[in-house]
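TASK: fixed-backbone design
INPUT:
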Protein backbone atom coordinates (compact mmCIF):
# COMPACT_ATOMS: atom_id res chain seq x y z
CA UNK A 1 0.00 0.00 0.00
CA UNK A 2 2.85 2.40 0.81
CA UNK A 3 4.35 1.64 -2.57
CA UNK A 4 1.13 2.62 -4.29
CA UNK A 5 1.03 5.90 -2.36
CA UNK A 6 4.63 6.67 -3.38
CA UNK A 7 3.83 5.97 -7.05
CA UNK A 8 0.76 8.19 -6.84
CA UNK A 9 2.74 11.06 -5.30
CA UNK A 10 5.47 10.64 -7.89
CA UNK A 11 2.96 10.80 -10.74
CA UNK A 12 1.45 13.97 -9.23
CA UNK A 13 4.90 15.54 -9.00
CA UNK A 14 5.67 14.66 -12.61
CA UNK A 15 2.34 16.04 -13.78
CA UNK A 16 3.00 19.29 -11.95
CA UNK A 17 6.38 19.62 -13.67
CA UNK A 18 5.23 18.76 -17.16
CA UNK A 19 5.12 21.50 -19.78
CA UNK A 20 1.63 22.79 -20.58
CA UNK A 21 0.44 22.13 -24.10
CA UNK A 22 -0.19 25.25 -26.19
CA UNK A 23 -3.72 25.69 -27.54
CA UNK A 24 -4.08 24.50 -31.13
CA UNK A 25 -5.94 26.67 -33.60
CA UNK A 26 -5.87 29.69 -35.88
CA UNK A 27 -6.17 33.37 -35.02
CA UNK A 28 -6.08 36.67 -36.89
CA UNK A 29 -5.26 40.13 -35.61
CA UNK A 30 -5.91 43.57 -37.00
CA UNK A 31 -4.65 46.84 -35.64
CA UNK A 32 -4.88 50.42 -36.78
CA UNK A 33 -3.96 53.70 -35.16
CA UNK A 34 -2.63 57.03 -36.38
CA UNK A 35 -0.48 56.08 -39.36
CA UNK A 36 0.06 52.44 -38.34
CA UNK A 37 -1.65 49.31 -39.66
CA UNK A 38 -0.86 45.71 -38.70
CA UNK A 39 -2.33 42.48 -40.05
CA UNK A 40 -1.30 39.16 -38.51
CA UNK A 41 -1.96 35.44 -38.68
CA UNK A 42 -1.18 32.81 -36.08
CA UNK A 43 -1.50 29.06 -36.34
CA UNK A 44 -0.59 26.63 -33.58
CA UNK A 45 -0.54 23.00 -34.64
CA UNK A 46 -1.58 20.05 -32.52
CA UNK A 47 2.16 19.30 -32.32
CA UNK A 48 2.70 22.68 -30.61
CA UNK A 49 4.62 24.25 -33.50
CA UNK A 50 3.81 27.90 -34.14
CA UNK A 51 3.43 29.74 -37.44
CA UNK A 52 3.07 33.48 -37.07
CA UNK A 53 3.37 36.34 -39.52
CA UNK A 54 2.63 40.01 -39.04
CA UNK A 55 2.90 42.72 -41.66
CA UNK A 56 2.72 46.41 -41.00
CA UNK A 57 2.57 49.83 -42.58
CA UNK A 58 4.09 52.57 -40.45
CA UNK A 59 3.69 56.28 -41.12
CA UNK A 60 1.00 55.41 -43.64
CA UNK A 61 -0.50 58.52 -45.18
CA UNK A 62 -4.24 57.92 -45.36
CA UNK A 63 -5.98 60.68 -47.30
CA UNK A 64 -9.33 58.96 -47.78
CA UNK A 65 -11.34 55.87 -47.00
CA UNK A 66 -10.34 54.56 -50.44
CA UNK A 67 -6.65 54.87 -49.45
CA UNK A 68 -7.34 53.07 -46.19
CA UNK A 69 -9.22 50.25 -47.92
CA UNK A 70 -6.45 49.86 -50.53
CA UNK A 71 -3.75 49.71 -47.83
CA UNK A 72 -5.67 47.09 -45.88
CA UNK A 73 -6.24 45.08 -49.05
CA UNK A 74 -2.51 45.20 -49.86
CA UNK A 75 -1.55 44.03 -46.35
CA UNK A 76 -4.09 41.20 -46.51
CA UNK A 77 -2.92 40.11 -49.96
CA UNK A 78 0.76 40.20 -48.99
CA UNK A 79 0.06 38.20 -45.84
CA UNK A 80 -1.99 35.59 -47.71
CA UNK A 81 0.58 35.31 -50.52
CA UNK A 82 3.49 34.84 -48.12
CA UNK A 83 1.76 32.48 -45.67
CA UNK A 84 3.01 29.31 -47.39
CA UNK A 85 6.59 30.49 -46.75
CA UNK A 86 6.08 30.85 -42.98
CA UNK A 87 7.95 28.00 -41.31
CA UNK A 88 6.45 26.36 -38.22
CA UNK A 89 8.78 26.71 -35.24
CA UNK A 90 8.98 25.66 -31.64
CA UNK A 91 8.46 28.27 -28.96
CA UNK A 92 8.83 28.12 -25.21
CA UNK A 93 5.36 28.13 -23.63
CA UNK A 94 4.73 28.33 -19.89
CA UNK A 95 0.95 28.02 -20.05
CA UNK A 96 0.43 31.75 -20.67
CA UNK A 97 3.40 33.23 -22.54
CA UNK A 98 5.05 32.16 -25.79
CA UNK A 99 8.71 33.14 -26.14
CA UNK A 100 11.40 32.41 -28.67
CA UNK A 101 13.43 29.43 -27.42
CA UNK A 102 15.63 30.69 -24.59
CA UNK A 103 14.23 34.21 -24.97
CA UNK A 104 12.78 36.63 -22.46
CA UNK A 105 10.51 38.89 -24.48
CA UNK A 106 6.91 37.69 -24.82
CA UNK A 107 5.85 37.07 -28.41
CA UNK A 108 2.29 35.87 -27.82
CA UNK A 109 0.15 35.83 -24.69
CA UNK A 110 -2.56 33.27 -23.95
CA UNK A 111 -5.17 33.65 -21.23
CA UNK A 112 -6.36 30.11 -20.48
CA UNK A 113 -9.29 31.39 -18.41
CA UNK A 114 -10.80 33.63 -21.10
CA UNK A 115 -9.31 31.74 -24.10
CA UNK A 116 -7.95 35.07 -25.44
CA UNK A 117 -4.80 35.23 -27.56
CA UNK A 118 -2.77 38.44 -27.81
CA UNK A 119 0.06 39.14 -30.23
CA UNK A 120 2.93 41.23 -28.92
CA UNK A 121 4.09 43.25 -31.92
CA UNK A 122 7.50 44.92 -31.75
CA UNK A 123 8.42 47.98 -33.79
CA UNK A 124 12.17 47.39 -33.88
CA UNK A 125 13.71 48.61 -30.65
CA UNK A 126 11.19 51.42 -30.19
CA UNK A 127 8.12 49.98 -28.50
CA UNK A 128 5.62 47.16 -28.62
CA UNK A 129 1.86 46.93 -28.80
CA UNK A 130 -0.45 44.16 -27.70
CA UNK A 131 -2.98 43.23 -30.35
CA UNK A 132 -5.98 41.06 -29.42
CA UNK A 133 -6.39 38.12 -31.78
CA UNK A 134 -9.62 36.51 -32.89
CA UNK A 135 -10.06 32.76 -33.46
CA UNK A 136 -10.97 31.63 -36.98
CA UNK A 137 -11.72 28.26 -38.50
CA UNK A 138 -9.61 29.08 -41.54
CA UNK A 139 -7.80 32.10 -42.96
CA UNK A 140 -9.78 34.18 -45.44
CA UNK A 141 -8.56 36.36 -48.30
CA UNK A 142 -9.55 39.62 -46.62
CA UNK A 143 -9.26 39.51 -42.84
CA UNK A 144 -9.76 43.28 -42.57
CA UNK A 145 -13.40 42.99 -43.53
CA UNK A 146 -13.99 40.88 -40.39
CA UNK A 147 -12.56 43.59 -38.13
CA UNK A 148 -14.94 46.20 -39.52
CA UNK A 149 -18.02 44.29 -38.41
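OUTPUT:
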Amino acid sequence: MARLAVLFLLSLALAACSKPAPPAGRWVAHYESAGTMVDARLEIGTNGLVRVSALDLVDALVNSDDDRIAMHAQLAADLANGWSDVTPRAMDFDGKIFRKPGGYAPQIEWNPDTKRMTLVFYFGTQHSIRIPMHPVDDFGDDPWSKSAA
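COMMENT: Residues 20-147 form one domain.
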